[in-house]
Design a protein that fits this description.
single chain; 192 residues; alpha+beta; four-stranded antiparallel beta sheet; 8 strands
């Protein structure tokens, strides 16, 4: 079993890069990089680092995965029609609350690797597990002086649209749990 390739579809997957885990370091605190790969459409997005323990905990212990498999983590259309749009509007100050957070899986803005993206995972009304990647406005804290390539938010949001929106078969998500469990065993991850 490949514990570093988390299959979404036949051509899409999350790739875990554990090269930065060294024998002399705490394995639980060690950082791994996560990348999204779509071989068919030639899309490669670096999502940056997380700890081994956070990654393994999310997939093996966190209740969200159980809800996804049961089909009960349904995106509330009364809250939002588009998670990425809502996320951007919240950070721009255009809305007061950010209900999208509970569907959030990863982002790469902490790496300061432009362009910025967010990963979302939720169920649709039919119980399908939806995997979505949306763009995040990268210049919220920049000025034209500090970042000459800055595009005004109102202009940027006009062209906003999700980058990826696909269904993860339940069998694939179940396999993710097994892989993360093996990954955790290999790197001796312990949860309190």
């Amino acid at each position: 079993m490949d514990i570093t390739k988390y299959k979404i579809s036949d051509t899409e997957y999350l790739k875990i890069n554990p090269e930065c885990i060294h024998d002399h370091e705490c394995k639980t605190c060690a950082q791994i990089d996560i990348d999204y790969v779509d071989e068919k459409n030639n899309i490669y997005i670096k999502f940056g680092h997380t700890t081994v323990s956070s990654f393994c905990y999310f997939l093996t212990k966190y209740d969200a995965i159980t809800q996804l498999l049961k089909g009960t983590r349904i995106l509330d259309k009364a809250i939002t029609h588009d998670l990425g749009f809502e996320w951007n509007q919240f950070y721009k100050g255009e809305q007061k609350s950010n209900e999208a957070f509970k569907y959030h899986l990863r982002s790469n803005d902490h790496k300061e690797i432009r362009p910025y993206y967010n990963i979302w995972i939720y169920n649709d009304e039919e119980g399908n597990i939806i995997f979505e990647i949306t763009p995040f406005y990268p210049w919220f804290y920049e000025t034209k002086k500090t970042c000459p390539e800055k595009i005004p938010y109102k202009l940027w949001i006009k062209d906003y649209k999700p980058i990826v929106k696909t269904i993860i078969p339940k069998e694939n998500l179940k396999q993710w749990i097994k892989q993360a469990d093996e990954f955790g065993k290999k790197y001796k991850v312990k949860f309190e």
